[in-house]
């Protein structure tokens, strides 16, 4: 797989850029930014993706590691949706010994 990424640097760059943008939007984005800041943030991500592409071409497993992070985030999202559908995510159960505290 590393040889294929090494021989296709443009596709490697685009994959890394997509993964970086997805991770940023899923983890770090709180609200929409003004358009100038949005452009600046995406420009910095594009430059960072270029640096990560260089590391990927030098045989570091950047895409594989970022893919694992994305898979884990998708698993978390699926678990949150499952809990929401089952109704377990909205009810907070008190601890079992909350009413049994004895004072000396």
Structure characterization notes:
- The chain is mostly helical.
- It has helices spanning 2-7, 9-28, 35-57, 62-86.
- The longest helix is centred in the last third of the chain and has 25 residues, at 62-86.
- The mean pLDDT is 88.
Number of strands: 0
Report the span from N to C terminus. Answer: 67 Å
Following the backbone from N to C, one meets helices and strands in this order, namely: HHHH
Q: Biggest sheet: strands, sense, closure?
A: none
Q: Which segments are poorly predicted (pLDDT under 50) over 5 or more consecutive residues?
A: none
Give the helix/strand class.
mainly alpha
Average pLDDT, to the nearest integer?
88
Give the amount of beta strand, in percent. under 5%
Overall morphology: extended
Counted by DSSP, the helix tally is 4
User: How much helical structure, as a percent, in the residues?
Assistant: over 70%
What's the domain count? 1
C-alpha Rg, in Å? Answer: 21 Å
Keywords:
single chain; 104 residues; extended
